[in-house]
Structure of Adenylate kinase:
Amino acid sequence: MLNVVIFGAPGSGKGTQSELIIKEYGLDHISTGDVLRSEMKNETELGKIAKDYIEKGQLVPDELIVNMLAKVLDSKANSKGVIFDGFPRTIPQAEALKKMLNERGTDVSIMLNLQVDEDELIKRLLERGKVSGRSDDNLETIKSRLEVYHKQTAPLADFYVKEGKHVAIKGMGTIEEIFGRIKEAINAVK
Ligand code: AP5
């Protein structure tokens, strides 16, 4: 299986590049943000809990996310591989993912860490907020998402450096240019 973790700050292009990776390599896509937004839309118990965290730009507690992820992963049992978008975001989530994949006889193949300047991240998210209707794409919440990213999520890069899976990808430039860099990195481990 080809299992790709796509990692980076809010607005770094994880969702955009995931779509291209899926088409090129025939992978399944698991975006924890998309799953949570769908739970919110359907007003499930999880959705109601997640709403408070998401609107403040904070992380949803690990236990809820890991249980949710395990269920989604079970539905992809016959997959050629999975792209994990927005997960893991903390060390306990990374450890849980490793355990879940190992139990299924597989592991993370590569972690792509998209590097984008902070002013560009804010510009992209404010632009998207005009049309997306995402309740977390406003300046106040974007600032708190970025703070949470730096404090809680960015340190996770070291976990994958130690695993020998970390590849830094320059996330500035056109979508096609960035995808070219990603393909080069994936083809080297495939
Ligand atoms: P999530 O949905 O994962 O959001 P995020 O990490 O903040 O990332 P975004 O979706 O905003 O950005 P992206 O990197 O996917 O960029 P995109 O391709 O869209 O999470 C939302 C919330 O859910 C979290 O804050 C948290 O509360 C909760 N959550 C989710 N997962 C969790 C977890 N594992 N644990 C705990 N809580 C969790 O691009 C952004 C914009 O830029 C788009 O408009 C795009 O068109 C544009 N763009 C992309 N590439 C380029 C380019 N090269 N040039 C110009 N524009 C570009």
User: Anything to note?
Assistant: The chain has a mean pLDDT of 96. The CA atoms of residues 39 and 47 lie 4 Å apart. The pocket of BIS(adenosine)-5'-pentaphosphate is lined by residues 8, 10-16, 32-33, 36, 53-54, 57-60, 65, 86-87, 89, 93, 124, 128, 136, 145, 174-175, 178 (CB under 6 Å). The first helix runs from residue 14 to 25.
